[in-house]
Amino acid sequence: MASWILARSKAHPLAAALTRGAAYAAPPIAGARALSSLPHYPSAPSSHGLGKVLGYEPTSHVSGAQVLPRWFSSLPSNGSQVQKSRISETYNKSGGEMKQSDARKSSEEATPTPKVVAFSPQEAAIAEPRSSPLTIESWKVRRSEIATKVTFYMIPALLLVSKNSMSTSLLVGAVFHQVYMFQKEILLDYVHHDITRKWALIYLKLLVLVMAKNTIMYFHPF
Amino acid sequence: MGIGEHFEGVKQHWASNFAFLDYYKKVYGRAEPLPKWSDADVDEFIASDPVYGPQLKALRESRKFALAGAFAGAAHLGGVALKYSKAPHGVVLATGFGAITGAVLGSEVAEHWYQLYKMDKQGANLRFIYWWEDKVSGPSCPPCHLVLSDDPVPV
Question: Which of A163, A168, A200 is facing B97, going by the closest CB pair?
């Protein structure tokens, strides 16, 4: 894996040098020597740590300082664009490392390729949605709201249609679900301590379940 | 066959659903309330009636389960609120809510302990009330007094 990383890091500046040589007709010997000695992230503050993590040993600081002005003077706009993209990539990677869980970090370590930031808006739009504890919680809340809305509109429909015990049981379940969600919202708003709120919600759920069962039994005793 | 017959069926269905409320009309909807009975009277009925006596005895025993459940629920939820939240109005509300939930859960445990789901609970209570009504107003009815005999004949 380390040899593969080293080979990729060696190939990358060579490809860049060839591209720039073909595009702008720069002197090939001087350009190749300068780019081969250039470190991967010259001016980012966490470049050394990132290089150590990825197993890439950057060259000395002095040669980077020597090469930098010539590179900027030769290609001002393109160089600044590449520099900005590299800086933003470094910041995104460091931010992602702070937020990611251990499982994601271990899975990222398994794949040694660094994450490339999408340049075009279409690529960014096509990218898959992120998975995190916050989005999971958001999906839970959304699902709960959908269930509450569906059971709310189920009540008048079943009230006008039900003529047997099964549909009446569904109606009773829907009504008590509304009661439970209404009371749950009150408890979530006014009980602030986590453990007290958890126990109060457990008691509420048990009470509502037993009341619903008793109502169903009273409606059609069999 | 039309929509009117469907809604008539729905109406009858809901009338039969709420038929259990007639019990409260028979008990509390009297023109003149019955005189107060004592535990001795209830015990007398339990001893005399072979069908509804045991049911009424089990119903009265289940009240202990509800009371124990109320105490347990109030103590637990009130204790949690007192330990963590420390708000006085919160502790009072939590104790009340815990008592209600505990009583309901205790009744549920008694329902399965004494197998009350096999009994006609409202029927047992109504039978006792009718027995008490006959006993209280029995001597004041001259024809019933003539018909009543000293030896009870099982029907």
Answer: A200
Output the average pLDDT for chain A: 66
Place of tokens 């009636």: B49
Residues 198-217 of A with CB under 8 A from B: 199-200, 203-204, 206-207, 210-211, 217
pLDDT for residue A86 is more than 70? no
User: Which one-letter amino acid corresponds to residue A167?
Assistant: S
Cβ contact (<8 Å) for B104 and A207?
yes
What are the structural domain ranges in chain B? 39-137
Residue B84 has its nearest CB partner, among A163, A195, A221, at A195
Q: Mind listing the pLDDT tens digit for each residue in B63-108?
A: 999 999 999 999 999 999 999 988 899 999 999 999 999 999 999 9
User: Does the beta-carbon distance from B90 to A191 stay under 8 Å?
Assistant: yes
Contacts made by residues A107-114, CB under 8 angstroms, sequence distance 24+: A112/A1, A112/A4, A112/A5, A112/A54, A113/A8, A114/A54, A114/A89
Distance from CA of A211 to the nearest CA of B (A): 8
| Number of neighbouring beta carbons within 10 Å of residue A189 | 8
pLDDT at residue A6 greater than cutoff 80: no
- Could you please state the CATH topology (level 3) that the domain comprising A135-219 is classified under: 3 helical TM bundles of succinate and fumarate reductases (1.20.1300)
Q: Residue B125, class by beta-carbon neighbours within 10 Å (0-12 exposed, 13-18 middle, 19+ buried)?
A: middle
Mutate to test the interface with A, among B18, B82, B85, B91 (most CBs of A within 10 A): B85
Q: Would you say B41 and B132 are in contact if contact means Cβ atoms under 8 Å apart?
A: yes
For residue A34, is pLDDT > 60?
no
- In this predicted model, what pLDDT tens digit does every residue of B40-75 receive, in sequence order? 999 999 999 998 999 999 999 999 999 999 999 999
Tell me the pLDDT tens digit for each residue of A60-73. Answer: 444 334 444 444 44
